[in-house]
Amino acid sequence: MAPASGLTARLGRSWTRFDGPGRLVGVDLARGLAVIGMLAAHLLDTERVLTPDPETWITVVNGRSSILFATLAGVSIALVTGGPRPLDPARRPRAAARLAMRGALLWVIGLLLVLTGVPVYVILPAYALLFVLALPFLGMGARGLFLTAGALALVMPWIQPVLDAAPIWSGLGGDELAALVGWNYPFTVWIAFLLAGMGVGRLDLRRAPEQALLVLGGVSLMLAGYGFALATAPLVSGGGYLAAVLTAEDHSSGLWEVIGSGGFAITAIGLCLLLCRTPLRWLAIPLRAVGSMPLTAYVLQLVVWAVVALAVLGDTSDLYGVRELGLFGPLTLGLIVGCTVWALTIGRGPLEAVVDAVVRAVVGPDAVTRAGGPGPASAGPVASGDVGGPR
């Protein structure tokens, strides 16, 4: 009888952590969509021009999934550092130390993934730098964060082509340096997405008006970014510097991509929050489970990819060979089923738990929990220890 009682209690704790009143399950859903979107961008044929034809809609995952990841990282950082009320100055140093330590661990994990030779631009090294760059902004409120993000979004795309053309990237060791800093997701521009996400996390995301405001604001940014991209296309058709700036092309870090795809990320977050106010939240449980352990899901997909490619093709870098194997379907299904079973029976994702244990051992417990504030289950959309993964 005792073992059965213990199992029931454990399952109850896992469910409370997964769907308890202190959890913003809509953010989990957005994370799950970002994880699957990045997997689709890697393993499916997404190199198409977006048109009204539904067959071309898959191209939406290109670029936008990773930008949604970065924006959600900012949301998580804000939520575990006080949410709508930033931590007071006395508690901020410990929170900053924990985030810096998580960034260091992400950087190491990212480099290990790069060494697998899987032909994707691993985002974790860029995440590591973004975590460190976020530290000076931990005490800032939503208004300041949105204004800073907006200023960077408007200015940095004009500077980025110059930075991309720097001799350091084409010289000896340039490729290795780019991998070390995740330059395919340049922190000089992507900090705008992170700070915008932090601004979102400083809102009261449990209230429907704020959720609806995110959708309205995000749609407005999408219309502006993609609308201006269409309007300026004839002016930059000849290429050159302006063409590199005034573009919405995926992974370009162009001005219109930053505005339009940044708006897409904010819209997706708002819609997921609103959706999870309805009974559809139950249908979304599998995707929410993936989003509850994004670091585990992201790393696992690349490790499985590497193992299968090496075993079947003898080469982990053969992208088209892997696509021909049809790996996307089985891998996606396996991730969804595995994450769902784990989340509902065990709880926190395994890599998330390891990262949190290391951070606690080195830095100490979370500042919010230590000070008597909300504990792990109520620290936001993830437990306070889960902010170490891609969002």
Automatic annotation (TrEMBL):
Region (Disordered) location: 371-391
Transmembrane segments: 64-83, 95-114, 145-163, 183-201, 213-235, 255-275, 295-313, 325-344
Protein keywords: Acyltransferase, Membrane, Transferase, Transmembrane, Transmembrane helix
Lineage top rank: taxon: Bacteria
Stretches assigned to the Heparan-alpha-glucosaminide N-acetyltransferase catalytic domain: 23-207
Entry-linked InterPro entries: Bact_Transport_Assoc, DUF418, HGSNAT_cat
Comp. bias regions, Low complexity: 376-385
Occurrences of domain DUF418 (ranges): 238-355
A molecular function GO annotation: acyltransferase activity
Protein name: Acyltransferase
The organism of origin for this protein: Microbacterium testaceum
Lineage summary: Bacteria, Bacillati, Actinomycetota, Actinomycetes, Micrococcales
